[in-house]
Amino acid sequence: MTHATVESELDAYLDGELAADEVRAVEAHLAECAACGRFRDERLELRAAIGARMPVFRAPDALRTRVIVAAESSGPLRLAARPVPVGRRRVALALAASLTVVAVGTWQLARADAAAETLTTAVLGSHVRSLMPGHLTDVLSSDQHTVKPWFNGRLDYSPPVYDFAERGYPLVGGRLDYVDGRAVAALVYGRRQHLINVFLWPAASGPSGGRSIGTRQGYHLLHWAAGDYVYWAVSDLGIPELEDFASLLRHADSASNAPN
Amino acid sequence: MESRQLERFEAVVLPHLDAAYTLARYLTRNAHDAEDIVQDACLRAIRHFDSFAGDGPTSARAWLLAIVRNAAHSAQRRHRPEHGATEFDERTHSDAVADAHPETDVLRAAAKESLGRALEGLPPDYREVIVLRELQGLSYKEISDVAGVPVGTVMSRLSRARTRLQQALRDEESR
Q1: Contact flag B39-A66 (C-beta cutoff 8 Å)
Q2: Cα B150 to Cα B166: distance, rounded to the nearest angstrom
Q3: What is the complex's ipTM, to 2 decimals?
């Protein structure tokens, strides 16, 4: 046995990589060989020094976000590269929808074209990103009169902001987000331990369509247009509660628009 | 990525992002390159996720770290094919880089002492086995998967790397 082989053997012993009979052999040798005993002690000192002094790093949040977004968007990218016959897809989706209506209750399809698909992915990506530490709000306030003016000068529209605390959906705050090629308002509402992101922007800027409901990766997405705005509400809340919340928003909107 | 695949990717691979970043930090020796390497590696992981069995002999962590390691090595070959990787690199060690990446201070502080310097000065093949074993607790088999070498080679590299680091510790004490 060469010197290096003995050292490797001792390292493997200290790393817990030896079988039981090998362990016994090494320990018997260690009991009577002072040089190997010193070697072992030095290795243990080194291990302690590395553990104490060499840092383990945490991946930056921005990196984590980029990876998640890349994973999420890798589907639509593939889809874009290999166009699916839209007509057939619509029929298939419509058929699937009609079959699941009974089981799921409401499953209304958004426009099944790539634009809507991309938009859904973007909204979901923004929602997931917002849930990462430090990303949820730019303005943290349950006061709608603090949150609404915060958007002044940051957006070219003043989004309606409400507080539904008395109905169990307190306002948490707001932030600027970027969806569909434009800066948009994201309002955050709470529901017990759940969070709801509401994205809204002026209706003229894109295909608003009708209402739609979707589920992606365990999140529910509600989409509608009301008054001047296109809305997306995203949450891990169940669909009935999310619908309940959306109807609160719609009623508040029509109430505040009524005097005009 | 389909939503089921995506969920699996997020559950299986993302928990090892810190480990991936740590390995990249020690291989590239700077924060900015490490981020690029990990992002690049994750894009590859996403593309090849279908081929990752998950229940095979390779753990998800070792699978991701192997991709990170290969990305780091090929980036190093691209950037300075003519230099040995152990040379002192003005760019990665300059204060300007540290200022742009405050986190680098941690590494710099570590590098000021001889153990950190010794680790940075190890050849990449040695440095990676130390990081994988001492900081991330991989088994010899996992390290052999990551580095693409037999377990025997892992053992001898680990032993030599440790002996060199120990020498640095002894030098420090005798100062």
Answers
A1: yes
A2: 24
A3: 0.79
CB neighbour list of residue A127: distance below 8 Å, 6 or more residues apart: A197, A219, A234, A235
- Amino acid occupying residue B157: R
Closest approach of A44 to chain B, Cα-based (Å): 10
> Tell me: the pLDDT tens digits for B87-106?
444 344 444 444 445 555 55
Dihedral over Cα of B51, B54, B60, B65: its sign: negative
Interface contact flag, A218 B7, Cβ < 8 Å: yes
What is the per-residue pLDDT across B25-80, written as a single tens digit (0 to 9) for each?
999 988 999 999 999 999 999 888 887 866 666 788 999 999 999 999 888 777 76
Number of structural domains chain B divides into: 1
Q: Give the pLDDT of residue A3.
A: 64
Closest residue to A67, CB basis, from B42, B106, B169: B42
Domains of chain A, CATH where assigned: 3-53 (no CATH), 61-257 (3.30.200.100)
- Give CA–CA dist B121/A157, Å, rounded: 56
Domain that holds residue B44: 3-174
Question: Reading across the β-sheet that carries A194-202, which strands appear in turn?
Answer: A139-140, A171-179, A182-191, A194-202, A229-235, A219-226, A212-216
Name the pTM for this structure: 0.53
Cα separation, A75 vs A70, whole angstroms = 9
Q: CATH code at B136?
A: 1.20.140.160
User: Given this model, what pLDDT does residue B16 score?
Assistant: 93
